[in-house]
Design a protein that fits this description.
This protein is an alpha/beta fold. Strands 1-7-6-5-4-2-3 form a seven-stranded mixed sheet, with helices on both faces. The longest helix is centred in the last third of the chain and has 40 residues. It binds pyridoxal-5'-phosphate (PLP). The site of pyridoxal-5'-phosphate has 14 residues, from helix 6.
Length: 508
C-alpha cells in the first residue's frame, strides 16, 4: 500500500467536547403511576450510597459522539484494515458473525445471578464449549474462568501447588522450570503463584536443551512450562522425552497455548504429555486481541487434576445444566462468575461456523503462510533466519535485522516503524529475547497470497532504503497518525496519562 496515509486529527478527549446540557439520548421520564408505586425513589437507595453531586460526565449530542470516535478510528490500525503479522498474537480476521452472536439480546440481557433454571441455554453453550476445548486439547476437563492467557498460567500454577500440597510435598516442590524462549508472563505467573522460576537455555537448534533440563530437574521440581510450537515457531520434537523426564521427577507439565493455532486438529497437548493446558481463546478462536482487547484463557487439565479446578463447574445430568459448587479440593475462583462470556460466545460461534475440518484447515493455512514468508524473506538476503534455517516453521517465524544493523545502522525497531508507512502493522519486535534484533512474524491463515507478497515487497523496499537513504528508515513512520514516539515515555507508568482525572490534574 504505497499510498497508505493515516489521518492526523488534533482530537480533544471526549470530556473536552460538547456543551453543558447537550444530550445524545433522552431518558423517558418515569410514568406517574410507577412513581406513585415507588414513592420517593431517592429513599430507595441508602444515604451512604447516594451521590452528593451528579457525576462529571461528558455532555455531547449523538452526532458529536459518532464523529469523535470515527476520527479516532481513522488514526488507528486493525485486522479489518490490513496485514497484522504480530508474532505469537495470532491477529487473524475475526468474522462478524461472532460479534452478532455475542451481541444477541437473548444472551446479553441475562444476569449471572439469575436462577440457573432460567439460563439453561447459556449453560448449554458454555458446557458444549468446555467439551469442544477438551477434545481439541486432549484434556479431561476445562474451566472457562480465566480472563486471559496469563491468568490461565497463574491458575495452572495454582493447580500445580494444590496438586503437590495434596500429595504432601509442596514445601519441597519449589521450582517451576521455564525455557529462555518463553513469554515474560510465564516466569511472572510462576512467581506470583509462589514458585521459583528456574530459567534454562535453549539449545543450538532453538528448542529446549534436554541436557540443561536433566541438570536442573530434581525432587524440588514442581513442573515445567513449555510453549509448543515454541516462540521461534519450531515444534519441540522431543516433547515425549521431555514429558518423561519431568514426570519421572514427580513434576507436572504446563502447556502455554499461545501458539495452539498452528496445531489445531493435528496434535493435542494432552497426547504430548501435558497435564495442564491454557487456550488463548482471543488468539485462536476469533476474538480481537493485541493492544489490550478483551480475552479469555480457559485451562484444561488431566483427569487427576480435575478436582482442583475453580468453582463453579458446569454440570449436566442428561437433562439439566447446573452450576456445581460442591468441590472441596477446588483452588477457588480466579474471576467473578463464569468467565468473560462475550469472548467465549465469539469462540463458540467461530468453532461452530468452521467445524472440525475448518479448524484443521485454518492451522494448515497458517503454517503454509508462515513458511511462504520464510522462503520469500530469506530470498531477499537482507534478514537473517536464526536457528536451523532448513527446518520448516509452524505458524510463525523469527527473523533478525542484525545484517541491516551491521551494514547500515538500521535496527529491528526501525524496520518495524517503516513497515507502518507501507500500511502493515509491525511484527512483534525484540521478542523472543534469545534472538538479537528479533522480528517475529505471524501472518495467520487470514491473508491472501498477494497480501503476503505485499509484505515481502515492503521488507525488500526497507532493506534497499536502509542502503541508500537510512535517514528515511531511522525517522519512520512518516505516514502514520503519530511519528516516532519516545518508546520509554510511551510505556512508563509515570508518564502515561490513562484517565481524564490525571490529564486534568496535569493540565492544572
Ligand atoms: C507465548 C505467549 N504466552 C503467553 C501469553 C499471554 O497471553 P495473554 O496476552 O492472553 O495474557 C502471550 C501473549 O501474547 C504469548 O505470546
Amino acid at each position: 500500500m504505497a499510498n497508505f496515509r493515516q489521518a492526523r486529527w488534533n482530537e480533544p478527549i471526549v470530556f473536552e467536547l460538547g456543551h453543558t446540557g447537550q444530550r445524545g439520548c433522552v431518558v423517558p421520564a418515569i410514568e406517574n403511576s410507577i412513581k406513585q408505586q415507588l414513592g420517593n425513589v431517592h429513599a430507595l437507595l441508602p444515604g451512604k450510597m447516594r451521590r452528593r453531586s451528579p457525576p462529571e460526565l461528558p455532555e455531547l449530542s449523538e452526532v458529536e459522539v459518532v464523529r469523535h470516535f470515527t476520527r479516532l478510528s481513522q488514526m488507528n490500525y486493525s485486522v479489518d484494515l490490513g496485514l497484522y503479522p504480530l508474532g505469537s498474537c495470532t491477529m487473524k480476521y475475526n468474522p462478524k458473525i461472532n460479534d452478532a452472536l455475542a451481541g444477541s439480546p437473548s444472551l446479553t440481557e441475562l444476569h449471572p445471578y439469575q436462577d440457573e433454571k432460567t439460563v439453561q441455554g447459556m449453560l448449554e453453550i458454555l458446557y458444549n464449549l468446555t467439551k469442544w476445548l477438551a477434545e481439541i486439547t486432549g484434556t479431561s476437563e476445562i474451566t472457562l474462568q480465566p480472563a486471559a492467557g496469563a491468568q490461565g498460567e497463574f491458575l495452572g500454577a495454582l493447580i500445580m501447588r494444590a496438586y503437590h500440597k495434596f500429595n504432601g510435598n509442596l514445601s519441597k516442590r519449589t521450582d517451576l522450570i521455564i525455557p529462555d524462549s518463553a513469554h515474560g508472563t510465564n516466569p511472572a505467573s510462576a512467581t506470583m503463584a509462589g514458585f521459583h522460576a528456574l530459567v534454562i537455555p535453549s539449545d543450538e537448534t532453538g528448542c529446549l536443551d534436554i541436557d540443561a533440563l536433566e541438570t536442573v530437574v530434581s525432587d524440588r521440581t514442581a513442573g515445567l512450562m513449555l510453549t509448543n510450537p515454541n516462540t521461534l515457531g519450531l515444534f519441540e520434537e522431543n516433547i515425549e522425552e521431555i514429558a518423561a523426564i519431568v514426570h519421572n521427577a514427580g513434576g507436572l507439565l504446563y502447556y502455554d497455548g499461545a501458539n495452539l493455532n498452528a496445531i489445531l486438529g493435528k496434535v493435542r497437548p494432552g497426547d504430548m504429555g501435558f497435564d495442564i493446558v491454557h487456550i488463548n481463546i482471543h488468539k485462536t478462536f476469533g476474538t480481537p486481541h493485541g493492544g489490550g482487547g478483551p480475552g479469555a484463557g480457559p485451562i484444561g487439565v488431566s483427569e487427576e487434576l480435575e478436582k482442583f479446578l475453580p468453582i463453579p463447574r458446569i454440570g449436566f445430568d442428561g437433562e439439566n445444566y447446573c452450576l456445581d459448587y460442591d468441590k472441596p479440593h477446588s483452588v477457588g475462583k480466579v474471576r467473578g462468575f463464569y468467565g468473560n462470556i462475550a469472548v467465549l460466545l465469539r469462540a463458540y460461534a467461530y468453532m461452530l461456523s468452521l467445524g472440525a475440518e475448518g479448524l484443521k484447515e485454518a492451522a494448515e493455512v497458517s503454517v503454509l503462510n508462515a513458511n511462504y514468508l520464510v522462503k520469500k524473506i530469506e530470498e531477499l538476503g537482507a534478514y537473517e533466519l536464526p536457528y536451523d534455517a532448513k527446518r520448516p516453521r509452524k505458524h510463525e517465524c523469527v527473523f533478525s535485522a542484525k545484517p541491516l544493523q551491521k551494514d547500515n545502522g538500521i535496527r529491528a525497531i526501525d524496520v518495524s516503524k517503516r513497515l507502518l508507512d507501507y500500511g502493515v502493522h509491525a511484527p512483534t519486535t525484540y521478542f523472543p529475547l534469545i534472538v538479537e534484533e528479533a522480528l517475529m512474524i505471524e501472518p495467520t491463515e487470514s491473508f491472501e497470497k498477494d497480501e503476503l507478497d505485499r509484505f515481502v515487497d515492503a521488507m525488500r523496499k526497507i532493506a534497499e532504503e536502509a542502503k541508500v537513504n537510512s535517514e528515511l528508515v531511522l525517522k519512520a513512520p512518516h505516514n502514520a497518525a503519530v511519528t516516532r514516539l519516545d518508546e520509554v515515555k510511551a510505556s512508563h507508568p509515570r508518564t502515561m496519562v490513562l484517565s481524564w482525572k490525571t490529564l486534568k490534574e496535569s493540565r492544572e
